[in-house]
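re: ur question from yesterday

yeah so i grabbed the chain u mentioned. its 367 aa long if i counted rite. heres the sequnce exactly as i have it in my notes:
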Amino acid sequence: MTEAINSKSLPGWVPRAIILFFVAQLAYQFTLSALVSLRGFLLTILVSLFLSFAIEPAVNSLSKRGMRRGPATAIVFLILIVITSIFMFAIASLVVDQVAKLSDNAPGYLERSQNYINDQFDTNINTDSLREQIENSDSPVRKALDNLAANAVTVGSSAIGIIFQILTIMLFTFYFVADAPKLRRSLLRRLPPERQTIVLHTWELAIEKTGGYIYSRALLAFFSGLAHWIALEIMGIPYAVALGVWVGVVSQFIPVVGTYIAGVLPVAIALIQEPKLAVFTLIFVVIYQQIENYLLAPRITARTMNMHPAVAFAAVIIGGSVFGPVGALLSLPAAAMIQAFALLYLDDHKVIESPMTAEPTPRKKKN
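ran it thru and got these structure tokens back, copy pasting raw so excuse formatting
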């Protein structure tokens, strides 16, 4: 019986299937290793592509007026660099100055906070021992404050290293925008005419959605920065302009948690001045956020980022999990493009009437 089984040869496809399996496994491992190694480069290309989508409408506008794409792209880049540099310099100067001031004047701030809490809440808090620790140059608390001030300067100076990473993204973005027509023609040469139409329409839709996202965020950032600048100026908080710009930019361009990150800095600066101002600042930040969520944002983003909040939140989580902070930043315009593609290429059917799909009818106002 055993000899009969051994005498039977395996089918001819079995060895080939085994070899094919091992070759596919090796190809998979090689591809995965290459993607991990090139993750930083691929992320750079992805960021550059999104930035090119955002910048191209402005470049196209200048090109229609007779300017060549190269100089037009350079002008747009120069404007963005100037604006970003002013913003970074203002915020870095603010943070370094306030941290150094906190280190130098910590005992006075501590005493004022103690008096405020005792007066407002009828308590009897005594911080003499902590004040002694702060004033003693050899104490751990004093050394921690000194290190905090030194680290703030170090972090500000280390930002120069980030510039070299940004230069690579800027270089790719510049060529993606300046040579956009040539790049598209190179890609379309390998496709039949019907595929070319789909690619061009998809590319145009990506530019429209990304540009719309940037436009709506910039407009919301302007209103947010203006409102916070006026409020902080009225309350007498220093660096009101820089803080207003900080709140406007960070709250709009960092998804989900941007509002909370943006509000921390003005509240901290107000706390250094006077605890009561910190409370007022926090109240204003919360109230303005509600006004923005229910009045401004729905009207401004209705045509550019008409997306359900749950979908937006899920997109941010997925983008952050795959590509980190950069993926979280790019997740919303990417989700908007995917949603637009789905609406464009998927059939739209009429929804059947059902109690589970019925929208609530607004109540009639009583006379």
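noticed a couple things. Residues 191-346 form one domain. also Residues 1-7 have pLDDT under 50 and may be disordered.
anyway ttyl
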